[in-house]
Amino acid sequence: MGKVLAVVEQRDGSVRSGAREVMSAAARLAEATGGEADALLIGGPGVAGSADQLREYGAETIRVVEHEALATYAGEDHARVVADEVRAGDWAAVLFSATIQGKDLAPRVAALLDVPLAQDATAIEAEGDRFEVVRPVYAGKAFARVRIDASPVLASLRPNVFPAEERQGAGRVENVSVEVDLAARKSRVVEFEAAGGDIPDVAEAAIVVSGGRGMKDPEHWHHLETLREALGPEAGLGASRAVVDAGWRPHPEQVGQTGKTVAPKLYFAIGISGAIQHLAGMRTAGIIVAVNKDAEAPIFKVADYGVVGDLFEVVPRLAEEIRMLRAEG
Known about the structure:
The chain has about 325 residues and is of the alpha/beta class. The protein folds into 2 domains: about 5-185, HUPs (Rossmann fold, 3-Layer(aba) Sandwich); about 205-329, Rossmann fold. Helix content is about 25%, strand content about 25%. Helix 3 (about 75-90) crosses helix 4 (about 100-115) and helix 5 (about 220-230) packs parallel to helix 8. The termini are far apart.
């Protein structure tokens, strides 16, 4: 079988955490098929300095595209660059990260190449001379095993599902020259506005603390802030759709079918009933902890640990216990 290409994301010259997961997944897949794992890194001048971060996760060859016009993500231009690279190469599979950027880029590339795309995969395996992908369907209520009869195979991988395992690759850097027709652009990115300061994005956080209508009032959100702070810098804040619709929390924090899909190692559902739309966005979390006063709440059907009680008593106590344990450790 051929090689595997990882299309990696970077921001301000630094490789994103999801990119390391995709690179590592590509390396494991290439090892299983007897091929090599390569990386495609696109950005502005100087982005080649991030190549070492990919070598540590198994990249044999790192194709670097540096252009001033590609310093910030532009869907049309990035998709054309990726598609041209794939056409010129001999990769059997091309992997993306199913982040907000990846969910925009991967379909564009698939359309340009006229091949199918397996989006938001939770597993990918080599089966003989073919690849099989496991992905959620029906709003996450079931998982489909999909065999893709196309070349190359395109798939985007759900963040926080594929472990980023360090393995040394050759890390050969090959610079690629491209031309960008700015006049042909139909849209452009004006600026990126960071939300939440140093708090990690809910889609990439290793731990997520989410709140629902059971919080009763946005002024009570400080209880979740306290729990998040006790859990450490890897924790992010999430919210249910009802909370976002009510204007209590910003939309970037929304978890669910119409929000973001998350797969953290640890997920706290505080005052969330567990409607199917919310479960679709978080049921693949490693461990789910639910706190709700209603013992019959659907969230308890998917929770690994559940507390039936008043969240305004449970959450502060939980935060204090976690803070004490972290201090001892």
